[in-house]
Write a structure and sequence with these properties.
Helix content: 25-40%
Order of helices and strands: HEEHEEEEH
Largest sheet: 6 strands, mixed
Shape: elongated
CATH topology: TATA-Binding Protein
Strand order of the largest sheet: 2-1-6-5-4-3
CATH architecture: 2-Layer Sandwich
Radius of gyration: 19 Å
Distance between the termini: 70 Å
CATH superfamily: Fungal kinase associated-1 domain
CATH class: Alpha Beta
C-alpha cells in the first residue's frame, strides 16, 4: 500500500511539474495580438475590455476618457508605465507603435494574461484608447484583468480631458 501511494504521489508531482513547464513554455505568438475593439470575447468571465464610447463591434465593459495629447505621446507614456510593471513584456508592437500587445504572467505559476491596446487619433490633438485584457487559461480571473486595465489607465489620468 505504501509503495502504491509513493508512486501515486510521484506521478502527481511529475504531472504538476509538467503542467507548470507547459504553461511557462507554451509559445506566445501573433495570435494573441488582436484589435481590442474587434476581437471576439473569450465567452468566460476572464477578460475586460474598455474603449471610447460607441467604438468597435464588441461590447465594452467600460468607457475610456479622451486624452489631450497625440497618440504617440499617450502610447509612449503608457508603454513606460506598462513595462515597469512586474512580469510584463511587450509581445507584439505595430510598425507605428500605436497597437501593442503586452503579456503579464502571474507571480506563482506564470499564467499569461494578454493586454492588447490601440491608441486612436481622434483629431484636434485628442487620443482615444481601446484596451482588451484577457487570461489565456482558466474560467475566471477573480477580477485581475479589470483591475489591471483600471490601474494601467489610471497612469494616463494626467492626460485626461
Amino acid at each position: 500500500m505504501l509503495r502504491w501511494l509513493t508512486w501515486a504521489a510521484l506521478a502527481v508531482a511529475i504531472g504538476f511539474a509538467g503542467f507548470a513547464l507547459w504553461v511557462r513554455l507554451a509559445p506566445d505568438g501573433a495570435d494573441f495580438h488582436v484589435d481590442p475593439l474587434e476581437a471576439p470575447g473569450t465567452g468566460k468571465p476572464n477578460s475586460w475590455r474598455a474603449g471610447p464610447d460607441g467604438s468597435g463591434r464588441q461590447p465594452l465593459d467600460a468607457a475610456t476618457p479622451v486624452y489631450g495629447a497625440t497618440p504617440e505621446d499617450i502610447a509612449a507614456a503608457f508603454d513606460t508605465f506598462a513595462t515597469a510593471q512586474p512580469r510584463v513584456e511587450r509581445l507584439v508592437v505595430s510598425e507605428d507603435a500605436l497597437h501593442v500587445t503586452y503579456i503579464q504572467r502571474s507571480r506563482l505559476m506564470g499564467f499569461p494574461d494578454y493586454v492588447s491596446i490601440r491608441f486612436l487619433d481622434l483629431g484636434d490633438g485628442e487620443t482615444g484608447v481601446a484596451v482588451y485584457s484577457r487570461a489565456r487559461y482558466g474560467q475566471s480571473d477573480l477580477g485581475v484583468n479589470r483591475a489591471r486595465v483600471e490601474n494601467w489607465l489610471a497612469a494616463l489620468e494626467p492626460y485626461a480631458r
